[in-house]
Specification:
Aspartate Aminotransferase, domain 2, two-stranded parallel sheet
């Protein structure tokens, strides 16, 4: 029977990783894969994670299943981290998932179950896996304008015009902070205008919050999500612990369904449990338990927050250094957007042939749409990248 299967398109980022590994040049630079790296190129285990895992190793006496939606303490800890006291806890259904990707997938599954004819509005561009999953599930997608290749900022007028075509029963997928792949974020005032459109159209927001703490700080990065959750009748939030806790391989995420009353929360909670059962039954627990331990222990939480700030400030420093290098070498401020962007990624807004020239001539690897991982740089490689960008005529 399997001879009827068709070859699936290769993942562009995985292909790029393979090309990088096979490149024999010693001075090559990997700006493709979306993980944080320190100055030595290592993705370290955070101090608080190490400490929590050590305690867990000593104290844990069973590996029995948790509930279908994971340990309730993990749900409580993550709802508090993301939403704080924005909405009553009793109004939030929550389910642990295999990573932020699992949370997004379960969110899409819930949308399809509730409204089979729902359209999901996605930013142009967005994380490619959003589009892949939506296509696989047979959910209609509508792209809304987001990134302006000229200014390398948000095309906000275009975005609002496109979002106003949504209606009740549609879903608008938003990036809570650190937009992937562009790094260009909405201002607080712009978020207010988006909320006004949501209320006007009756569309339901779904927020992908993969980088809380990587942009302007833990609280600041959650501000837009909290504002949306407080303003609309219902919303979905998919949150990831991969980046801000550095536990990529532990696949730790959570999906939240926020509603206006506790009665609706009970229905949503049952639905999330059902969806988990159909897809993987019980979610992974190790990463979720480590996160719970960190967030519920004052000393571990303080150390985690301090190290997360070190990570965030390192990326901000690299952004500023790159923008300054380019300004000095080009005599132009056209790359100032790099310092204004937030998170791991920035999109240069150039053509695939120039991205290919960076790879072929300089051994610099980034995704074909010119998305680059700022965290793949260090203070030594920033000047190399700056000169290469100018050499290929970006």
């Amino acid at each position: 029977m399997f001879e009827t299967l068709k070859a699936q398109p290769a993942d562009k980022i995985l292909m790029l990783m393979q090309m990088y590994r096979e490149d024999p040049r010693e001075n090559k630079i990997d700006l493709g894969v979306g993980v944080y790296k320190d100055a030595t190129g290592l993705t370290p285990v955070m101090r608080a994670v190490k400490a929590a895992e050590h305690k867990l190793w000593k104290d844990q006496d069973s590996k029995v299943y948790t509930g279908l939606v994971g340990d309730p303490a993990f749900g409580d800890a993550m709802v508090d981290l993301v939403l704080a006291d924005t909405v009553p806890r009793a109004n939030v259904a929550a389910a642990a998932t295999p990573g932020g990707t699992g949370a997004v997938r379960q969110g899409f599954e819930m949308i399809r179950m509730a409204r089979p004819d729902a359209r999901v509005f996605v930013s142009d561009p967005t994380w490619p896996n959003h589009l892949s999953m939506l296509s696989y599930l047979g959910i209609e997608t509508v792209q809304y304008r987001y990134f302006d290749d000229e200014t390398r900022g948000v095309d906000f007028d275009g975005m609002i015009a496109d979002l106003k075509t949504a209606h009740a029963g549609d879903v608008i997928l938003l990036h809570g902070c650190c937009h992937n792949p562009t790094g260009a974020n909405l201002t607080a005032q712009q978020w207010d205008e988006v909320i006004a459109v949501l209320l006007e159209t009756g569309a339901t927001p779904m927020i992908d919050l993969a980088y809380q703490g990587f942009g302007d700080g833990l609280e600041q990065d959650a501000a837009a999500t909290r504002k949306v959750a407080a303003a609309v009748p219902e919303c979905l939030i998919a949150a990831s612990c991969s980046k801000n806790f550095g536990i990529y391989r532990e696949r730790t995420g959570i999906l939240m369904a926020v509603t206006a009353d506790a009665a609706a929360q009970k229905l949503n909670q049952g639905t999330l449990a059902y969806l988990n059962r159909q897809n993987f039954s019980f979610p992974p627990d190790h990463g979720a338990r480590v996160v719970t331990m960190i967030l519920s222990d004052d000393a571990l939480r303080a150390d985690w927050k301090a190290e997360l700030e070190e990570v965030r400030n390192t990326m901000l420093g690299l952004r500023s250094q790159l923008a300054k290098e380019l300004q000095q070498r080009s005599g132009s401020d056209r790359f100032a957007f790099l310092a204004a962007h937030r998170g791991m990624f920035s999109r240069l807004g150039t053509t695939p042939d120039k991205v290919e020239a960076l790879r072929d001539k300089h051994g610099i690897y980034m995704v074909g749409d010119s998305r680059m991982n700022i965290a793949g740089l260090n203070t030594t490689t920033v000047p190399i990248l700056a000169q290469a960008i100018l050499d290929v005529g970006i």
